[in-house]
Structure formats: structure tokens, C-alpha cells
Design a protein that fits this description.
Strand order of the largest sheet: 1-2
Number of helices: 7
Structural class: mainly alpha
Order of helices and strands: EEHHHHHHH
Oligomer: single chain
Strand content: under 5%
Number of strands: 2
């Protein structure tokens, strides 16, 4: 999946997105996104094409995620990047910010398209195939917890979260703390690099202006100025990589942690509902020997479904995390190596220039 040029869509027979209360802000520029659903040999009969390229706004993505979260409460829904705030990028109207957010939204769709359950959700179908977008405002955000759960489990204290889910919660807390520490240090490094870059540019300008005063030192001074300029460009590239590639991934996983914690909380609420209904049913059974209500069995099935889906999504998330951070750290290492290689090559070329100048001076003195 990649950002690309939009092309026409074949009719899929889907209802217009307006019929499912889709919000859209006319003041926001749409983004072009391309989604691959399995290539030319796809068997997904609900889609007419193996690949879609459509124009969508941020609020379209927000609508899709809300619908997925409501209709698939037992699954981990990938997070969206912030609409206005993204660490490492100050100006939300800058090309860098738009490009960074486009990459994040592109990844959000890829996560959903690769998911064995979410990719079959009808709201994803509507997101990709609908042509008539409703421009009315006012998305009614549905509650994340059903009223029945609030009523039954509102005053009930969960007995104990299973050990494996306790381990998940502890891991998320530790992981989030590590990400926060790395993010703060990276932000500080980025700020210091920016300040150093400003000083380095002024440093190079001094040598450039000095050239006009020292004719005999023209070549060495121009060489130093050229080296400093090369180092400035290398450092600027390094900073852009950190702000556009490194920091957004950290922020994505901070948001992922919040999404995972939200699913864990909903799982706990489902377990609390089951335990509360079970206790009430046991008391009634002791009093009048009534059979176990069907609602209790349904709640038990719901908890088991929650557990199975959460475990599967946890494994998938861990696999994606390992791949993402391997790619992230490898890219960071390559960028740093490239930065220092450029700087080293620049200063080594200056040494050669200075040695040639020294040889010329000795020859002149001999003559």
C-alpha cells in the first residue's frame, strides 16, 4: 500500500457513505491513498478491485477507526496519528508534517488491510468503495462500553485479571515508560543538533568572508568553508531523518500502547460483567433452584472470545513491533554512518588540499 495518484473506481454496489452517517470537513484537504487487498489473484468477492486508490480526509480515517472500534470491540484497532500535533514537526501546515502524517495514515490502512478480521469489516468496504461522501458534520461517537455492562458491572470489583493479561499490562507500562524516555532524549538531541547546525553555518560563513582578505590562503580557506558546508548538509539530513522517520514511529507505538490498554480495560469489563451475572445467578439458584440463565453463558462466551482475540492481536502486534523497530534502528544506524562518512570524506579532502599547498609553497621557496 502506498500513497499515489487517484484513479477512477468501478461501481461496487455499496451504499453511499452518507447513508451510514459519515462526517467530512470541507475545510480540510483530502489525501490520496492506495490500498492493496491481495493482488490480482484476490478472492475477496466483496471488492471489485484488488487495489483501490481514493481521496479521503483525516475525518474519514477517524470515522473508520471509530466504527471499527465499535463493531470489533474485542480486537486491537491500530491508532491514528494526531490531527494537529506531531512531535518533532512544529508547523502542521508544512510539507514535512503533511508527508509524515500521510505515511502514518498509509500505515494505519495497511495494518487494517493485513488483519484477518478487520479487513472483512463492512465499514472498511464503505471507506474504500463509497463515492458520494456526506459533508455533514456531527459524528455521534458511540460509547465504548455498553449500557448493560455499565449497569451490571458498574459497582462490581473484578476478582483477578488472569496472569497472562496482567503480564500484558505490566509490559505495556514498562514499554511505554521506555518509549517516553527515548522520545524525551531524542527531542533534546534534535534541539541540540538544530542549535549546533545554526552555529556551524555561521562558522562556515566566517571562512568564506575571510577568503577576500588572504589571497595566499584562498584555497585552504575555501576548503574549510566547503567542508563545513558539507557537514551542515549531512547534519541537516540526519535531523530530518529523526523528525520524519524516527520520532513518528515512537509516537505511533505510544498511541498503540493506549489502544492496547483500552482493549484490556474492555476485556476486564466483560469479565466483570460475567462474574457479576454469575454471582447473581448462583444466589438465585440457591434460593429457588432456578437454572443458570442463558445470559450468563453468553457473557462467558463473550469473555472467551475477548481472550482469544486479544491474544491473537497481541502476537500480531508484537511481530509488527519487532519488524518496525528492526527497520527503524537499522535505518537510524545507516543514517548515522552516512552522516559521519560524508563529514570524514570532506575533511580528508581538505588534508589532501593542505598537503598540496604545502608542497607548492616549498617548491616556490626553493625556486
Amino acid at each position: 500500500m502506498s500513497v499515489g495518484t487517484p484513479r477512477g473506481l468501478a461501481s461496487s454496489g455499496q451504499k453511499p457513505i452518507a447513508e451510514i452517517l459519515h462526517p467530512l470537513s470541507a475545510a480540510e484537504e483530502p489525501l490520496s491513498v492506495t490500498v492493496n487487498l491481495g493482488g490480482d489473484k484476490t478472492t475477496r468477492v466483496e471488492f471489485d478491485l484488488p487495489e483501490y486508490c481514493v481521496w479521503r480526509r483525516y475525518q474519514d480515517f477517524d470515522w473508520l477507526r471509530t466504527k471499527l472500534e465499535d463493531s470489533q470491540p474485542t480486537h486491537l484497532i491500530p491508532p491514528l496519528p494526531e490531527k494537529f500535533v506531531m512531535k518533532g514537526v512544529v508547523d502542521r501546515f508544512s510539507e514535512e508534517f503533511v508527508e509524515t502524517r500521510m505515511k502514518a495514515l498509509d500505515k494505519f490502512l495497511k495494518r487494517i488491510a493485513d488483519h484477518p478480521v478487520l479487513s472483512f469489516n463492512p465499514h472498511l468496504n464503505a471507506f474504500l468503495t463509497a463515492k458520494d461522501l456526506n459533508k455533514r458534520q456531527g459524528l455521534a461517537l458511540l460509547t465504548k462500553v455498553g449500557e448493560s455492562v455499565k449497569y451490571v458491572a458498574g459497582g462490581y470489583k473484578l476478582r483477578a485479571r488472569p496472569a497472562e493479561f496482567c503480564a500484558m499490562g505490566e509490559y505495556l507500562d514498562t514499554f511505554n515508560q521506555k518509549l517516553g524516555t527515548i522520545d524525551r532524549i531524542a527531542q533534546r538531541i534534535l534541539k541540540e543538533q538544530s542549535e549546533y547546525l545554526t552555529e556551524l553555518r555561521e562558522y562556515g560563513t566566517v571562512y568564506s568572508s575571510w577568503v577576500g582578505l588572504e589571497d595566499e590562503l584562498r584555497r585552504p580557506l575555501e576548503g574549510v568553508a566547503g567542508c563545513v558546508t558539507t557537514c551542515c548538509g549531512a547534519l541537516e539530513d540526519l535531523g530530518e531523518n529523526m523528525s520524519q522517520d524516527f520520532l513518528p514511529v515512537l509516537r505511533e507505538y505510544v498511541l498503540y500502547v493506549e489502544s492496547m490498554k483500552n482493549v484490556l480495560r474492555k476485556r476486564d469489563q466483560s469479565q466483570a460483567e460475567y462474574e457479576a451475572r454469575l454471582e447473581a445467578a448462583i444466589l438465585r439458584k440457591q434460593e429457588d433452584r432456578s437454572p443458570m440463565p442463558v445470559e450468563v453463558e453468553k457473557c462467558q462466551d463473550k469473555v472467551e472470545c475477548f481472550n482469544a482475540d486479544l491474544k491473537a492481536d497481541w502476537e500480531r502486534w508484537q511481530s509488527n513491533k519487532r519488524q518496525d523497530f528492526k527497520q527503524l534502528l537499522t535505518g537510524m544506524a545507516d543514517k548515522n554512518i552516512n552522516h559521519y562518512e560524508k563529514c570524514q570524506a570532506a575533511w580528508e579532502s581538505l588534508i589532501t588540499l593542505l598537503q598540496d599547498k604545502q608542497t607548492e609553497d616549498k617548491t616556490s621557496e626553493t625556486n
